[in-house]
Amino acid sequence: MSALLDVEGLEVGFGSRTSAVRGISLTVERGETHCLVGESGCGKSVTALAVMNLLARGSHRTARRMTFQGEDLLKLNDRGMARLRGNAMAMIFQEPMTSLNPAYTVGSQMTEVLRRHKGASQRAATDRAADLLARVGITAPGLRLGQFPHQLSGGLRQRVMIAMALMCDPQLLIADEPTTALDVTVQAQILRLLAELQRDLGLGVLLITHDLGIVARVATRVSVMYAGEVVESAATAQLFADPRHPYTKGLLRCVPVPGKQRQDEPLGSIPGTVPRIGPGFAGCAFRERCDFADETCAHIIPRHAASPGHDYLCRLTA
Amino acid sequence: MFNFLIRRLVVAALVAATVMTLAFILTRLSGDLATSIAGPNATQADIEAIRLAYGLDRPVLSQFFDWVGRALTGDLGESYFFKARVSTLIAERMPVTLTLGLTGLVIALVVSLPLGILAAVRENTGLDRVVQMVALFGQAMPSFWLGLILMITLGLNLGWLPISGTGSWQHFVMPGIVLAFSAIPALTRLTRAGMIQAMGSDYIRTARAKGLSRASILLKHALRNAAIPVVAIAAVQLGFMLGGSIVIEQVFALHGVGFLAWESIGKNDFPVVQAVVLVLAVIYVALTMVADLMNAVLDPRLRGP
Ligand SMILES: Nc1ncnc2c1ncn2[C@@H]1O[C@H](COP(=O)(O)OP(=O)(O)OP(=O)(O)O)[C@@H](O)[C@H]1O
Ligand code: SF4
Ligand SMILES: [Mg+2]
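Predict the joint structure of the above. Result:
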């Protein structure tokens, strides 16, 4: 059976000068959690939005292959995507404060997804919404359903967004930093809920996070992004045990022991900044900051397989 | 919400007071009222008699407070020319003016909302630019001139619509169009700007991520937010239209309040002029309050936590 989500050679540009995503390939299997990590601006959100085809105007998306449940997403028109979105594939955005419509109640916004995709009655949809709000740890769901977004804190809005994404029992959930506004207990509750859905319904999750503690706890597979590329991808244990790319090593330098690391600790800080990448950029984007860089790093860099399912993008082979 | 209403009412009262003062001063600026009421053939004795009869011999301030005091109790005085109560005169003619204003507003909204949405959805295309050009053109057009053009084409040449009078609803179409033209540019631009902003917002991205239909995204989620400033301006525009009816009612011979004001200015019937100015100002202030209330209905954030 093919992967739930299969992306190959995804490129996204903004205008003619910015290449935000440069040839990314990744897969999400049923029931697994694939984590995307990397420092700010490396293209994680753009990758997620590209899969949902929700990129801003003025962007340009191409890919060699992009399939969801075997269906070619590149061939789908707006209507075809609308049939999948919110239904079989759902997304939680990085911006919980602004992602709800200020003019409608939480209940109205949550129920309309189920009514649209499953033809549910208002009553059934409201029950489902209340149930999901309770499951993401919101007390008094009935009260919250009648409230407007401005009456909710950031943490509550984020949980509403999570619950709303789960309304139609999606097969794929793309979650962009879904727990940043939440305290540890609630965060743990959400991660438990997702794990349950993965076990019971085979939900596949593409999870974007800065929190290596979460990665260590929930990820089946990790892809490390740098300047619009996946520079290393491996099963989680493999990546933590045997990182190959100098950037990954830098990230993991202060790697936490799972469960013991401090909250909201940033990814290991590496001196220097990400270069601005435009079309025609050649060589390794990390070479300005890499301790191992030499002149060959300005040429085409091969992708090596360290072991089956573990590959990295670097001239170094050992 | 309650505080907000109180504040609005205080502002409204202040505006009304200012307008009353201005209306009073303006009617006194046009020379000696008794002389002009008496007419060119009157003798000095006639003039003095009129001055006494209308209380124009008293100090201006006492005349003013007398008028204000009566107006507050709803007594707007008596017309010199029509020999009738001013409130009756205005009440008789108000339906024509209100019908005209509302017709204008409805036409303006029916044209500007779709145009604005269309221009926003097709932002920066030829269609968008055409819409903006039309809006600009509408802005530059004097309303009496547009009125005449419509009368000649739709009325005289094509014979589709009556050119003057108030006999049927058809009589209100042409003047309604003319009035609408003055509001269409602002309303279209506002709708376009609001829709562009809404369509670029995170919550519209969410609506798309939910797989909602295009109609639901545009009309339910985007327009609802884009409409908030449009509603406010539409109410203000209706106020302008009621004021603008002074010209339009002349052109189309509609016997509304504007027509009454025009006649009364010519005859120096100053109780009527003062009263019309006051009534239009009060309606205008009331409309801005209605706009605020409608904003609160449309925008839950204004209703407080
Ligand atoms: N609408 C846009 N127009 C132009 N450039 C954009 C746009 N959206 C993103 N970019 C650029 O694409 C690059 C990747 O952005 P992206 O939002 O994917 O980063 P990210 O990895 O999600 O970062 P963060 O961790 O801060 O969320 C950035 O350099 C950003 O400036
Ligand atoms: S290719 Fe060169 S610069 Fe890039 S990570 Fe490897 S060694 Fe460092
Ligand atoms: Mg992001």
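Residues A 44-45, 94, 176 surround magnesium ion (ligand 3) (CB under 6 Å).
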